[in-house]
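Researcher: We plan to redesign the surface later, but first we want a full-length starting point. C-alpha coordinates attached.
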Protein backbone atom coordinates (compact mmCIF):
# COMPACT_ATOMS: atom_id res chain seq x y z
CA UNK A 1 0.00 0.00 0.00
CA UNK A 2 1.00 3.63 -0.39
CA UNK A 3 0.80 6.72 1.75
CA UNK A 4 -0.97 9.51 -0.09
CA UNK A 5 -0.38 13.26 0.09
CA UNK A 6 -3.06 15.04 2.11
CA UNK A 7 -4.51 18.21 0.57
CA UNK A 8 -4.52 21.22 2.87
CA UNK A 9 -7.10 23.95 3.24
CA UNK A 10 -6.81 26.29 0.27
CA UNK A 11 -6.40 23.55 -2.33
CA UNK A 12 -9.41 23.63 -4.71
CA UNK A 13 -9.97 19.84 -4.49
CA UNK A 14 -11.30 20.38 -0.95
CA UNK A 15 -14.01 22.77 -2.15
CA UNK A 16 -15.26 20.77 -5.14
CA UNK A 17 -18.19 18.35 -5.04
CA UNK A 18 -16.88 14.80 -5.44
CA UNK A 19 -18.19 12.53 -8.21
CA UNK A 20 -20.02 9.26 -7.47
CA UNK A 21 -18.01 6.09 -7.93
CA UNK A 22 -19.45 4.30 -10.95
CA UNK A 23 -17.94 0.88 -10.28
CA UNK A 24 -17.25 0.18 -6.59
CA UNK A 25 -15.74 -3.21 -7.56
CA UNK A 26 -13.04 -1.59 -9.73
CA UNK A 27 -9.63 -2.76 -8.43
CA UNK A 28 -8.35 0.84 -8.62
CA UNK A 29 -11.13 1.95 -6.25
CA UNK A 30 -10.24 -0.84 -3.82
CA UNK A 31 -6.56 0.10 -4.01
CA UNK A 32 -7.41 3.76 -3.39
CA UNK A 33 -9.53 2.82 -0.35
CA UNK A 34 -6.72 0.66 1.08
CA UNK A 35 -4.21 3.47 0.53
CA UNK A 36 -6.61 5.91 2.21
CA UNK A 37 -6.80 3.67 5.29
CA UNK A 38 -3.00 3.47 5.46
CA UNK A 39 -2.77 7.26 5.07
CA UNK A 40 -5.43 7.87 7.75
CA UNK A 41 -3.65 5.59 10.23
CA UNK A 42 -0.24 7.10 9.48
CA UNK A 43 -1.48 10.71 9.88
CA UNK A 44 -2.90 9.70 12.48
CA UNK A 45 -6.61 10.33 12.04
CA UNK A 46 -10.02 8.75 12.53
CA UNK A 47 -11.39 9.55 9.08
CA UNK A 48 -10.33 10.53 5.60
CA UNK A 49 -12.25 11.45 2.45
CA UNK A 50 -10.98 10.92 -1.10
CA UNK A 51 -10.86 14.68 -1.86
CA UNK A 52 -8.37 15.01 1.00
CA UNK A 53 -5.97 12.83 -1.01
CA UNK A 54 -6.60 14.74 -4.24
CA UNK A 55 -9.23 12.32 -5.59
CA UNK A 56 -12.60 13.85 -6.43
CA UNK A 57 -14.54 10.66 -5.70
CA UNK A 58 -17.27 9.87 -3.14
CA UNK A 59 -15.23 7.58 -0.87
CA UNK A 60 -14.57 7.91 2.83
CA UNK A 61 -12.73 5.74 5.33
CA UNK A 62 -13.21 5.82 9.09
CA UNK A 63 -11.89 4.12 12.22
CA UNK A 64 -13.28 4.99 15.62
CA UNK A 65 -11.27 3.75 18.60
CA UNK A 66 -13.25 2.79 21.71
CA UNK A 67 -11.45 5.39 23.84
CA UNK A 68 -12.66 8.20 21.55
CA UNK A 69 -16.26 7.04 21.26
CA UNK A 70 -17.23 6.20 24.81
CA UNK A 71 -16.75 2.46 24.39
CA UNK A 72 -17.94 1.73 20.86
CA UNK A 73 -15.09 0.73 18.58
CA UNK A 74 -15.56 0.94 14.81
CA UNK A 75 -12.94 -0.97 12.80
CA UNK A 76 -11.47 0.32 9.53
CA UNK A 77 -14.53 1.00 7.39
CA UNK A 78 -14.75 2.01 3.73
CA UNK A 79 -17.88 3.74 2.47
CA UNK A 80 -18.27 4.27 -1.25
CA UNK A 81 -21.02 6.69 -2.32
CA UNK A 82 -22.12 7.24 1.30
CA UNK A 83 -25.42 8.78 2.29
CA UNK A 84 -26.45 10.16 5.69
CA UNK A 85 -29.90 10.40 7.23
CA UNK A 86 -30.30 12.34 10.49
CA UNK A 87 -32.30 10.44 13.12
CA UNK A 88 -34.08 13.26 14.91
CA UNK A 89 -33.42 16.97 15.32
CA UNK A 90 -31.05 16.79 18.29
CA UNK A 91 -27.69 18.45 17.70
CA UNK A 92 -24.49 18.25 19.76
CA UNK A 93 -21.62 20.70 19.91
CA UNK A 94 -18.28 18.90 19.81
CA UNK A 95 -14.59 19.41 19.05
CA UNK A 96 -13.37 18.66 15.55
CA UNK A 97 -10.04 18.84 13.85
CA UNK A 98 -9.03 17.88 10.34
CA UNK A 99 -5.98 16.39 8.65
CA UNK A 100 -6.41 19.06 5.96
CA UNK A 101 -6.35 21.87 8.56
CA UNK A 102 -3.51 20.81 10.86
CA UNK A 103 -3.02 22.42 14.23
CA UNK A 104 -6.55 23.81 14.64
CA UNK A 105 -9.79 22.58 16.09
CA UNK A 106 -13.19 24.04 16.71
CA UNK A 107 -16.59 23.40 18.23
CA UNK A 108 -19.02 22.21 15.56
CA UNK A 109 -22.73 21.36 15.84
CA UNK A 110 -23.63 17.96 14.37
CA UNK A 111 -26.63 15.65 14.44
CA UNK A 112 -26.47 13.47 17.55
CA UNK A 113 -27.76 10.37 15.77
CA UNK A 114 -27.59 9.35 12.12
CA UNK A 115 -28.09 6.40 9.83
CA UNK A 116 -25.51 5.99 7.10
CA UNK A 117 -25.28 3.71 4.12
CA UNK A 118 -22.92 3.07 1.28
CA UNK A 119 -20.94 0.32 -0.39
CA UNK A 120 -18.07 -1.33 1.48
CA UNK A 121 -14.65 -2.25 0.08
CA UNK A 122 -15.96 -5.77 -0.50
CA UNK A 123 -18.73 -4.42 -2.76
CA UNK A 124 -21.43 -5.24 -0.21
CA UNK A 125 -23.95 -2.70 1.10
CA UNK A 126 -23.19 -1.14 4.49
CA UNK A 127 -25.94 0.37 6.63
CA UNK A 128 -25.52 1.40 10.22
CA UNK A 129 -26.85 3.74 12.87
CA UNK A 130 -24.35 5.87 14.76
CA UNK A 131 -24.37 8.37 17.59
CA UNK A 132 -21.90 10.56 19.42
CA UNK A 133 -18.33 10.66 18.15
CA UNK A 134 -18.96 7.91 15.57
CA UNK A 135 -21.79 9.97 14.03
CA UNK A 136 -19.60 13.09 14.14
CA UNK A 137 -16.76 11.39 12.23
CA UNK A 138 -19.07 10.15 9.47
CA UNK A 139 -20.74 13.56 9.07
CA UNK A 140 -17.36 15.32 8.97
CA UNK A 141 -16.03 13.02 6.25
CA UNK A 142 -19.20 13.13 4.13
CA UNK A 143 -19.04 16.94 4.30
CA UNK A 144 -15.66 16.70 2.52
CA UNK A 145 -17.44 15.01 -0.40
CA UNK A 146 -19.57 18.13 -0.81
CA UNK A 147 -16.70 20.60 -0.52
CA UNK A 148 -17.57 21.56 3.06
CA UNK A 149 -14.91 21.94 5.76
CA UNK A 150 -15.68 21.79 9.47
CA UNK A 151 -14.75 25.46 9.86
CA UNK A 152 -17.72 26.29 7.60
CA UNK A 153 -20.03 24.83 10.25
CA UNK A 154 -18.59 26.63 13.28
CA UNK A 155 -21.36 29.02 14.38
CA UNK A 156 -18.93 31.52 15.94
CA UNK A 157 -15.26 31.70 14.94
CA UNK A 158 -14.40 32.45 18.58
CA UNK A 159 -14.92 28.66 18.93
CA UNK A 160 -11.90 27.98 16.67
CA UNK A 161 -8.44 27.65 18.23
CA UNK A 162 -5.02 26.13 17.89
CA UNK A 163 -5.01 22.66 19.47
CA UNK A 164 -2.79 23.71 22.37
CA UNK A 165 -4.97 26.74 23.16
CA UNK A 166 -8.42 25.12 22.87
CA UNK A 167 -8.55 24.39 26.62
CA UNK A 168 -9.23 28.11 27.13
CA UNK A 169 -12.44 27.84 25.12
CA UNK A 170 -13.49 24.69 26.96
CA UNK A 171 -12.90 26.41 30.32
CA UNK A 172 -14.87 29.50 29.29
CA UNK A 173 -17.81 27.39 28.11
CA UNK A 174 -17.77 25.35 31.31
CA UNK A 175 -17.82 28.57 33.37
CA UNK A 176 -20.79 29.87 31.32
CA UNK A 177 -22.73 26.67 31.98
CA UNK A 178 -22.07 26.87 35.73
CA UNK A 179 -23.11 30.52 35.95
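Model: Full-length starting sequence:
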Amino acid sequence: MALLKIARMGHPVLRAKAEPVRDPADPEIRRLAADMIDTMLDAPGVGLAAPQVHQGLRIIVIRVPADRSGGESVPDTVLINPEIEPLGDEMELGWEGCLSIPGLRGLVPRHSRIRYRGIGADGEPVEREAEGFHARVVQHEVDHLDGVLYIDRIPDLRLLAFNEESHHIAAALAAQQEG
